[in-house]
Amino acid sequence: MPISQSELDEVALSRAEYEAIVDRLGRDPNPLELGLFGSLWSEHCGYKHSKPLLRTLPGDSDRLLTTLGTENAGVLDIGDGMAIAMKIESHNHPSAIEPREGAATGVGGIVRDIFAMGARPIALLNSLRFGRPDSARNRYLLDGVVGGISFYGNCLGIPNIGGEVVFASCYDGNPLVNAMCVGLVENGLIMSARAEEPGDLLLLVGSDTGRDGIHGASGLASRTFEEQNELRSAVQVGNPFLEKVLIEACMEVIQLDSVVGLQDCGAAGITSGAIEMAERSDMGLRLDVSVVPRREEGMTPYEVMLSESQERMLLAVKPGREHEVESVFRKWDLDATRIGEFVDGDSVVILDGDEVLSETQIKVLTDPPEYEFDPPKPAWIVTLQAADLDAIPIPNDSPSDLLLKMLATPNIASKLPVFRQYDHQVQTNTVVGPGGDAAVIRLKGSKRGISLSTDGNGRLCYLDPYIGGQIAVAEACRNVSATGGVPVAITDCLNFGSPETLDGQYQLMQAVAGIKKACEAFDIPVISGNVSLYNEAPGGAIYPTPVIGAIGLLDNVRKHASAGFAGDGDVVYLIGSASLKGDASTLAGSEYLDVILGKVEGQPRLDLD
Question: Between the CA of residue 369 and those of 41, 53, 365, 500, what are the distances in Å?
């Protein structure tokens, strides 16, 4: 019987994609396989619309120890036998449905990506976007998201040292919650998400598997909210205390030479984690769902494979050595269960005990179609850029009144009510905390430090995504350098609307090109990142919002700089401009133009030289 459109909608596959699956398999997929394809071919896991663009980003550096997109996070050599693991990731759609749980599990997921590399997490940052705070719904989202971030991060004992909070009406109904984590690892202990040889065992460790998060990757993160019905079950539920124990257990177990690979069990759960491990290893995989520990009765193999229950990791372990690994996790009161084995070949065989549920070539599952596009520049962008800013009226308010009005706007006012909820001194390494241009932490045991910042400006990207992408990179690097750090790498989180519209395609394509241009100008690589598309609510798409996380190195952390005036009589310089007085064109996309005159227009400019 032909598959119905509602069945395809359930797993976010198009009719053309389904037909491609049938063609590759030579048969119709069974229901379990349809779920696997829906998750692995989703935008969230498969990057169908963005992968061709991401390949254009610069990823070369003498310091870089990983290749962009091949591991859970990027790893950068910082000298003295040490390396930094770094990544930023979104949890936008879950946070719009259940703000506290969505934001909390966003923190948990990015932290797992970092310790999956063998790195101990040492810092968190976040970049948040909400609709106007005069709406009760937006205040609810703000309170829930900040509460979830502080709850999870504080319980883990990882300092939340910086970030940004921005308000604009385009984020009504679709907030952005981007979480960044940084970890420290010895060069010799960097882990990879792959097995070494056929016969290596696949162990699942951590929490038991429940029904939470099913279709989180395909149903929640890869469609617009207009297409959703009841979504709460697709939001994961987190337990930071369990994750804290999981961190410590993994930090201990990677000291054993019996553990050869480590993988976060995040989006699409066991499906993505296990199958992508096998793909990276150029091996096949046999996986038995019947032995997966469950916390709910009556779970089907489909639910087990697609559950996104939190606080779970996958380990590749040398055969015959699993008992020493299991003993470490028992010490920490955690389950460690052998659920599969890496084998010769190129297929994944999924079993339920002795019953074979599916046998599929891994490449077929992990190689979704890629969509390339070259859309024209939208006419409305041309119109906005052509606005005559010299003709804008001068307000009747006095300069003092205008200044007070600007300082009182949510985007400029102090964010102390937000970041005072975060513990930014835990681990006792924070030198400069939230509220400045960038955060600075020391590297304990040395005089060195690192500077970290997250930045983005959706309004400028809305007016010119190419220049806006450049500005996001430039601002992040400026903020890092303003503390005394030398920018050495970035991680990016690309938050955009639907890639199926010409506007969405143009914005995504141009913003990535702008990021590429700025990175080449500053000679820094993109080492990791995330793409979040379909950020649209019934009111329309969000501003195109690339968020950049930058890292800089300080040879002597005592010689850092911080924002603010140090003492009476200090001389204040304006650097980068010959005059305090600019022309009207510099108001393009400004907070002033938006707040005072209610306009978002003009042509943003940037001189990378």
Answer: 8, 14, 11, 14
Cα atoms in the Cβ-side hemisphere of radius 13 Å centred on 530: 29
Query: Tell me: the pLDDT tens digits for 391-412?
Result: 988 888 899 999 999 999 999 9
CB-CB neighbours of 467 under 10 Å? 24
Tell me: pLDDT of 218 over 70: no
pLDDT, residue 353, reads 97
Beta bridge partner(s), residue 289: none
Residue 544 pLDDT level (bands cut at 50, 70, 90): very high
**pLDDT tier for residue 217 given thresholds of 50, 70 and 90:** low
Euclidean distance between CA atoms 570 and 128, whole angstroms = 34
Q: Going from the N-terminus, what domains does the chain have, and what CATH number goes with each?
A: 5-41+192-366 (3.90.650.10), 51-190+372-597 (3.30.1330.10)
- Measured CA distances, 526 to 63, 256, 275, 486, 518 (Å): 12, 31, 25, 15, 11
- Tally Cβ neighbours within 10 Å of residue 4: 9
Nearest to 600 by CA among 532, 544, 531: 544
Count of other CB atoms within 10 angstroms of residue 198 = 14
The band of 229, judged by pLDDT with boundaries at 50, 70 and 90, is very low
What is the predicted pLDDT for the residue at 227?
Answer: 47
- Residue 446 and residue 467: Cα distance in Å, rounded? 39
Cα 544 to Cα 496: distance, rounded to the nearest angstrom: 5
Phi, psi angle pair for 432, to nearest 5°: -125, 120
Q: What is the full DSSP assignment across 11-63?
A: TT--HHHHHHHHHHHTSPPPHHHHHHHHHHTSHHHH-TTTHHHHTTS----TT
Structure tokens at 169: 């009406």
| Cα–Cα dist 142/415, whole Å | 12
Does the pLDDT at position 334 exceed 90? Answer: yes
Handedness of CA 9, 12, 13, 14 (dihedral sign): positive
Decide if pLDDT at 220 tops 80: no
Contact 111, 242 (CB under 8 A): no
Spatial separation of the C-alpha atoms in residues 540 and 543, rounded to whole Å:
10
Confidence of residue 582 (pLDDT cuts 50, 70, 90): confident
Buried b (16+ CB within 10 A) or exposed e, 478-498: bbbbbbbbebbbbbbbbbbbb
Element (H, E) at 93: helix 92-97
Inter-CA distances, 460 with 136, 470, 476, 512, Å: 27, 10, 15, 14
Catalytic residue list: 44, 91
- Of 250, 217, 222, nearest to 236 by C-alpha is 217
